[in-house]
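Fold it.
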Amino acid sequence: MANQEEISIDVLKASCNKRKKHVKLKGGDAAFLITDYLVFGLFALLCFFPFYYLFINTVSNSEMVARGDVNFYPIGFTLQNYKDLLALSDLGRAFVVTVSRTVIGTALMVVASAFCGYLVTKKEMWNRKFWYRFLVITMYFNAGLIPGYTNMLMLGLTDNFLGYIIPAIVQPFNIILVKTYIESIPGELEESAFIDGAGHMMIFRKVILPLSKPILATIAIFGAVGHWNSFMDSVINMQNSPNLHTLQHKLYIWLNQSSNIASVIDTGRSSSDLEKIISQLNSGKVIKYTIAMVTVLPILLVYPWMQKYFEKGIMLGAVKG
């Protein structure tokens, strides 16, 4: 019996390969595919080139960058620009703050979104439709900047690390994605678990979470990118706590200082450590490129790793309304 199955599989593979050999594209189809590959290849190149341009300028000789000679490949390869940037004070602390808020904030957001998304799919939930609609409304209306700051101040979340975490735990859009994805999971799986004596929490942990990895990875990307790039909450809510400034906030401050000090260096004056660093770089342009690369690189490294989950999760999570 096993031999017959193996023979049938081999015959099926052979027939498929034979069919593939005989498939020929017509002139119009071939032209369409070639055009398609060229257009999307060019589009991908246009998207990739700005990051490549940033990178080659950060690892090139600063004098060459200042003259605008670096366009397509590095000239005078060096990592001194990154070393000089690391010499800036408080950069390490800002990096730790940003990584901490990204990891903790993303983890709590994913757990809250998964639990709330599962909860609003249960018909036995009290006033389920009302709470779900109330959740959706918050996507379109907010109090505004000043009332939001006042609220954070009254709650004691200004100059407090929790001010980065607590407001971002509940994300209505992510909850909607998770809810829609969970509704696509066959209900028979939950019913069989109920028959075996499992409760809602057991089903959530043992059945729903393992099957929801694609959508959870998708919202994790959203959350991580949001936390990593977040800037205004640090500027507004952490005014009196420089030790809680995020990496983006610190780099923004130094970027503005570099622009101001560049004009001072042109007059031949320099006194602070930052002035010495910029004078070594020989141009404010180089440190701007280096700062931009430092902020973008971690997210660029995360996306390829999460891509297989992201594509499946965003499609299945958006099928239903």
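The radius of gyration is 27 Å.
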